[in-house]
């Protein structure tokens, strides 16, 4: 009996040790926090105005209606031009003409950081507003452009609004972020990192998880934002998480899991595919938002106060990453 009990105790100790090791591997726990060096803060009212405009004026914002995507691109371009004199379109064809819109800040030469979000919405199941997916990310990108206007940066920062992230072009060479990532590689650009804003506006009392393991390792309340990286990303997700953890901000957790766990489900995957460093900033998408890819994903369902805090955190991280002293 003593031998049996000892064997059980050893087995339990090994199981606990493996669970702790797995938790450390996935979460990359850290108490690092950053001073808020940005100064100006994101405006919840501006974010809401962008989301409401994107989800009403430019519907369906989908591949089957190229004209609606072109009107959306023009809206993004106008706001980018109000923030930077260096705005360009990356045009390509996918049965019709489409374009990514790029605003650049900081020095023209040298390594660069990319922050991107897709402005199209799911169109295969009717016309969906796509407020969280991904008018929220696009609104965050537009607000970042306003907050970066006129700043002295030590690194170049490109804000990129992608088209054609959603099916039927998802994971194809015609996906807007694939076009952009391929272009960087072809041009020999040194990319310090890419940050994907993918659904940043939904917060909830409960946080559903698809497995007991994730429910054990991560919060049960949907009041946080996630930073998703590759399993061996050189600490990018961990650093970005620390820079986003600002006084008064939303809690930030990182997740460095394999793609088998669904970590590649947005534009950052286009950069991973080319061996480029990238992370995704997300409210956990369909895990938290039951309105994902439905007509219920409307502007009224988002939390713009906390969404603004997320944008503040991203801005702070971008400024740290683009610091001249690095």
State the main characteristics.
Aminopeptidase, 326 residues, 9 helices
Distance between termini? 61 Å
Would you identify the regions where 5 or more consecutive residues have pLDDT less than 50?
A: none
Residues in helices, as a percent range = 25-40%
Indicate how many domains the architecture comprises. 1
Q: What's the level 1 CATH class?
A: Alpha Beta
Largest sheet: 8 strands, mixed
What's the CATH architecture name? Answer: 3-Layer(aba) Sandwich
Fill in the CATH topology.
Answer: Aminopeptidase
Helix-strand string: HHHEEEHEHEHEHEHEH
Molecular shape: globular
Instruction: Give me the number of helical elements.
Output: 9
Which whole number gives the mean pLDDT?
92
Strand order of the largest sheet: 1-2-4-3-5-8-6-7
Using only CA atoms, what is the Rg? 20 Å
Number of strands: 8
CATH homologous superfamily caption: Zn peptidases
Return the structural class.
alpha/beta
**Amount of beta strand:** 15-25%
């Amino acid at each position: 009996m003593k031998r049996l009990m000892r064997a059980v105790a050893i087995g339990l100790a090994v199981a606990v040790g493996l669970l702790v090791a797995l938790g450390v591997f996935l979460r990359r726990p850290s108490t690092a926090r950053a001073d808020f060096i940005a100064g100006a803060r994101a405006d919840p009212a501006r974010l809401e105005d962008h989301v409401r405009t994107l989800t009403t004026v430019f519907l369906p914002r989908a591949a089957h209606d190229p004209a609606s995507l072109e009107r959306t691109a023009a809206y993004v371009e106008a706001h980018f031009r109000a923030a930077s004199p260096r705005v360009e379109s990356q045009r390509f064809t996918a049965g019709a003409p489409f374009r990514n819109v790029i605003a650049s800040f900081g020095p023209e030469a040298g390594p660069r950081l990319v922050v991107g979000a897709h402005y199209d919405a799911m169109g295969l199941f009717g016309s969906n507003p796509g407020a969280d997916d991904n008018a929220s990310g696009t609104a965050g990108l537009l607000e970042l452009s306003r907050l970066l206007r006129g700043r002295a940066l030590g690194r170049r920062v490109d804000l990129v609004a992608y088209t054609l992230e959603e099916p039927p072009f998802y994971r194809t060479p015609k996906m807007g972020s694939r076009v952009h990532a391929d272009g960087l590689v072809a041009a020999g650009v040194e990319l310090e990192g890419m940050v994907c804003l993918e659904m940043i506006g939904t917060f909830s009392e409960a946080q559903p998880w698809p497995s007991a393991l994730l429910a054990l390792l991560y919060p049960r309340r949907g009041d946080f934002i996630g930073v998703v990286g590759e399993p061996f990303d050189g600490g990018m997700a961990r650093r970005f998480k620390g820079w986003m953890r600002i006084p008064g901000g939303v809690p930030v957790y990182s997740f460095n899991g394999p793609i088998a766990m669904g970590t590649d489900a947005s534009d950052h995957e286009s950069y991973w595919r080319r061996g480029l460093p990238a992370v995704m900033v997300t409210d956990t998408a369909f895990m938290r938002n039951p309105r994902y890819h439905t007509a219920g994903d409307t502007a009224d369902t988002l939390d713009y106060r906390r969404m603004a805090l997320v944008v503040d955190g991203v801005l702070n991280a971008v400024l740290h990453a683009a610091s001249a002293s690095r």
